[in-house]
Amino acid sequence: MQIHQQMLLLKERKRGFHLITTEVIHALPQLGQIKTGIMQVFIQHTSASLTINENADPTVRRDFEMYFSKTVPENDPDYHHDDEGPDDMPAHLKAALLGSSVMIPIRNGRLALGMWQGIYLCEHRNYGGQRNLIITAWGE
């Protein structure tokens, strides 16, 4: 059994859904040593999240942002937590809905994503800053 772990600092991105698959793969070159295994990607933040979805058409990512902005609006008078501005509590709710990690099978040294799948960084803040990921891969 091999276990590899790497921290990845992502540059600041604007609010929205961003493909980060290539950055994740490049951050863990030992991936190629694992024939069969699992990779977990975990984000160390409460106002950004991770998910897996469409990797080809950028309109999907724009539609994700539109949907979540409508579903979890800013400036709701019922929110109590707004210390960091009107996008603060909605960002926490969106991150809770999508989650803080993704798990991907490893097959023959590569991520076994489907043809049209990619890893998204879901940035829910207007100015979220850099984001920290922990990437862990294990297998044989």
Automatic annotation (TrEMBL):
Task: Give the domain of life.
Answer: Bacteria
The protein's matches in Gene3D superfamilies, at most eight in alphabetical order, are given as: YjbQ-like
Q: Which SUPFAM superfamilies match?
A: YjbQ-like (SSF111038)
Which protein family is named in the record?
Belongs to the UPF0047 family.
The record's annotation in NCBIfam families points to: TIGR00149_YjbQ (TIGR00149)
The name this protein carries in UniProt is Secondary thiamine-phosphate synthase enzyme
